[in-house]
């Protein structure tokens, strides 16, 4: 089983769309945006990793790609969590233990 290096940020789903999906489909960004029912700017922002893939967008992309929403939402969650673990200071938050 492969394990991911915890020091490497998980790939943003927009990068997968930009680098793998759209070229493999041979479709332009404009045509992809039209097929997804979103503006070109919204798609461009996702592809540029400036916007996250929301649950609603994951449903659209999952249908478009034929692989379901879960994979796209899970990629975004992994990406976001990796950043949150590095950005959020939890040093002052106590870890509580249940009383037996």
From TrEMBL:
Q: Which InterPro entries match?
A: Cro/C1-type_HTH (IPR001387), Lambda_DNA-bd_dom_sf (IPR010982), Toxin_antidote_HigA (IPR013430)
Protein name, UniProt field: Addiction module HigA family antidote
- Please indicate which superkingdom the organism of origin belongs to: Bacteria
Assigned keywords, A-Z: DNA-binding
Instruction: Enumerate the spans annotated as HTH cro/C1-type domain.
Output: 24-72
For this protein, the record's PROSITE patterns field holds: HTH_CROC1 (PS50943)
- Please name the source species: Eilatimonas milleporae
GO terms for MF: DNA binding
């Amino acid at each position: 089983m492969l394990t991911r290096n915890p020091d490497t940020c998980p790939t943003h789903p927009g990068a997968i769309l930009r680098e793998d999906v759209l070229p493999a489909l041979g479709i332009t960004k404009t045509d992809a945006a039209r097929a997804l029912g979103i503006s070109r700017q919204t798609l461009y922002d996702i592809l540029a990793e400036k916007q996250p893939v929301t649950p609603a967008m994951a449903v659209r992309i999952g249908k478009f790609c034929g692989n379901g929403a879960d994979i796209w939402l899970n990629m975004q969650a992994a990406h976001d969590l990796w950043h949150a673990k590095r950005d959020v200071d939890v040093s002052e938050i106590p870890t509580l233990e249940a009383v037996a």
